[in-house]
Amino acid sequence: MSSIDMCAPENTGRQPKLIERAGVGRLIAALQQQGYRVVGPTVRDEAIIYDELASDADLPAGWTDDQQAGAYRLKRRRDQALFRYTCGPHSWKKYLHPPQATLWRAEREGGLFRILPETPRAERLALLGVRACELRALAIQEQVFAMAAHADAGYGVRLRQAFVVAVNCGQAGGTCFCVSMNSGPRARKGFDLALTEVVHAKRHYFVVEIGSERGAAILAALETRDATAEEIAAAEKTVNDAARHMGRTLDTTEIQALLYRNHEHPRWEQTGERCLSCANCTLACPTCFCSTIDDTTDLAGQRAERTRRWDSCFTADFSYIHGGSVRQSVKARYRQWLTHKLASWIEQFGSSGCVGCGRCITWCPVGIDLTEEVRAIRATKYYREPVHGDTGTRSV
Amino acid sequence: METLERVLSEHAFFAGMDPEYVHLLVGCASNVRFEAGSFIFRQGEEARDFYLIRQGKAALEMAPPNRPPMMIQTVSEGDVLGWSWLIPPHRWRFDARALELTRAFAMDGACLRQKCGEDPRLGYELLRRFSSIIAERLEATCLQLMDVYAIQS
Amino acid sequence: MPSNLEVAAPPLEAAATTMLPRLFRVQRYLQETDDTFTLELGPLDDGAPLAFAPGQFNMLYVFGVGEVPISISGDPDKPGVLVHTTRAVGTVTRVMARLRRGELIGVRGPYGTPWPVDQAEGNDVVIVAGGIGLAPLRPALYRLLAQRDRFGKVVLLYGTRTPEDILYRKELERWRARFDVDVYVTVDRAIAPWRGSVGVVTHLIPKAPFDPLSSVALICGPEIMMRFSVFELEKRGVAADRIFVSLERNMKCGVGTCGHCQFGPLFVCREGPVFAYPRVRDWLAVREL
What we know:
Number of strands of chain A: 16
Shape of chain A: globular
Mean pLDDT of chain A: 91
Strand content of chain C: 25-35%
Structural class of chain A: alpha+beta
Radius of gyration of chain C: 18 Å
Number of helices of chain C: 7
Number of domains of chain A: 2
Number of helices of chain A: 13
Structural class of chain C: alpha/beta
Order of helices and strands of chain C: HEEEEEHEEHEHEEEHEEEHEH
CATH topology of the largest domain in chain C: Rossmann fold
Shape of chain C: globular
Oligomer: heterotrimer
């Protein structure tokens, strides 16, 4: 796989623009003026997380991170780069698929009750600093919720309303493998604007690609000029460097068949013994979408409320049917998660559920690494041929 | 015996069996009839026969001292009742009771054992048929043991 | 043959259903057995009755307590009364069991795939039900009997734990009295005065009167019971793609977005609960899937 090819920009037919370092602050201000609540990276609790940005002063200037399996450390950079870090523990799904949402309320009236629909707060969001892998994650989640359009039309609406400022990666983290998943490090589509940051000793600028009319309109309000060929080349180089320095790789060749036929592989047992079933991976994962429903009442039993909140296939309750949980063992839960993410997802939604961001590796308290798991299974295939041969792959 | 042989050969147990063997086995068969409620055999008694049910319904039962007798399995037309004749010490392990008027062929165990001893091919043929009945009952017992319809606590 | 026996996609109307429960009033409460009851519901609003296909389910909401998936067990040709039979085994169903005439219940649905009743036209239809598994099959039986001429033999094989657990007794008697449907009931264990069959439901299959080569089998019950029923049907020569099973998994949303009901690549709520057996055969063999 050629990383150069990977990073070839999609021809949007628009001339890339150039903004200086100060232009980022102006971009944030312009978005705010348009009524957007701008959310993006900021340093909190020794990590780079996503939260509301008042100004560019909130951006993690001069910070980067060191990520390994089960390890995340913020580090100071020698320069004042704004986006030279890799994905932190948060992902944008917290804005589009909120961790907790009230679906409706109900009130008792006499002996009866009535249901009061909850109208979600309409909010115009601008997502600043969305990485290529995260753009893919947003598209994947949109597809998940679109499959049951009436169930959560909200996701698609929120995503389409959101103003997306992508940032092409100028470095790869120790747990990154977007190149393997063909999802990065260059943003190809799904953004209004895409920035590539170039930090030289004397210059700090951004090459800006325009992905939409909306993006063009915002940019028109800023001081920009056409980027020169040299500037574009310098920007390209940073992305190509990132592509060449992926901390991890994942061979996805025939991965569906590989995982479907290795349900009984001894590796699951071994990993199940290490896994704490803590659900960190599913919470950090930008595509994990599972949720559960809580129905509650007030103490008087007069008002009830239904909320939806993120759930995880690592909890024992997740697969509960009368009599007990289907996935009793941690091994079965880990197998479900990984097999879903990398194999059955393809059958369900037409693409892998993994974008190669590496969060599940970094944030696993015991450092379980899915790329390592797949490698181990691939190395010692324990194929159990389907008994009847005809189950399984449905073309999507 | 002409008629008995024909009727016997129509019983599901003999399906596909060499007519020569059916002819041979007729010698061990007799027609029996059990009134509703009567016992066909009792636990501990000597198992002299097995029964090919032609009509009616009978239940295999176990009777604990402090509870009503529990029906384990019922047999009806086309079924076979009993295999203790085959297995030493040839004593019934269960009670069998007719739930309604039940007609059957009683097959004399000692007679059968002798014929099987003389002709191992016949012995194999009979054993093959009984082993599938035994396997079916074992499978049914496993399923009953699973108690699949029970409320799990 | 297999191609026209695929489980059909849920009807389009189902896709338009909102996630907001619609309120229904309990019109009738029937105690079926010690732990199993039937609710007959009518919509509180003046809207259209809830049309459904045999085999589909609804999400039923009890005020403040929670929501559970329950199959519809009424007559699809009489959608004016929405009928649910369920067993009081969990928090929600235990409270549901205390609902009485006039009380309200929230309903979302119908969801899921139906039994392939129409596709079975011209064939014998063998229904194998275990325990509460008769409830989701009853609408199929209603439809088969309503359009009796379209089908060959119609056979119902029903197994329960004990005689006291038999559902829909009066109806079973009525069906048993008909000449155009064969009804066989068996129980896993019994004491006198039970004079019916004792033995597992799978034991009814070898002797049941149907033509294995032109039959469609519909099975619902505990998963173990369904697997063994399939073995017996296949032993008789019924082709795998003529066998349909209805699976149970945890469901929270009913529309394939909460993730709970996944069974291998399948969302049981959306691609099931009724599956053609070949679709789920290999997955059924995987433990803790």
